[in-house]
């Protein structure tokens, strides 16, 4: 579950009751990420932590060893149809070098013309949360 909400704390229990196995929240949306991470774990879910394009990746670093997945937004959240922001990929590269076992995802503007730009810094598995699937036949190995 990728929660793009202003008060992610209030949705932990309802999402757990609904059967969510992972709860991803935006770091910018909470004043106490540590308490929220603890609450998510106590409710039996994995923890994902998202950062918006304007947020420094280093802001996520103190929490990286407490989460299961980092999500780098490659568009501004909340507005469909945006172009992929390639300048977010250094954040992915930095996370991969600093936290090699951390699952990393990107979200936004990923499609046949940008998927290769996403794959490069990962060097292993590649995960997407919002992949544009039309004209997917353009993607080649």
From TrEMBL:
This is ribulose-phosphate 3-epimerase. PANTHER family: RIBULOSE-5-PHOSPHATE-3-EPIMERASE. Its cofactor is Zn(2+); Fe(2+); Mn(2+); Co(2+). One of its GO terms (biological process) is carbohydrate metabolic process. Keywords: Carbohydrate metabolism, Cobalt, Iron, Isomerase, Manganese, Metal-binding, Zinc. It is an enzyme of class 5 (isomerase). Belongs to the ribulose-phosphate 3-epimerase family. Pathway: Carbohydrate degradation.
């Amino acid at each position: 579950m990728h929660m793009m909400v202003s008060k992610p704390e209030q949705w932990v229990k309802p999402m757990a009751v609904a059967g969510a196995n992972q709860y991803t929240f935006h770091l910018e949306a909470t004043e106490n990420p540590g308490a929220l991470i603890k609450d998510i774990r106590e409710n039996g879910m994995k923890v994902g932590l998202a950062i918006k394009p304007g947020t420094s990746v280093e802001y996520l670093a103190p929490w990286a060893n407490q989460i299961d997945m980092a999500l780098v937004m490659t568009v501004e959240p909340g507005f469909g149809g945006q172009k992929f922001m390639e300048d977010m990929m250094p954040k992915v590269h930095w996370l991969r070098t600093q936290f090699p076992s951390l699952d990393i995802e990107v979200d936004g503007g990923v499609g046949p013309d940008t998927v290769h730009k996403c794959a490069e810094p990962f060097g292993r598995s590649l995960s997407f949360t919002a992949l544009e699937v039309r004209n997917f036949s353009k993607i080649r190995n």
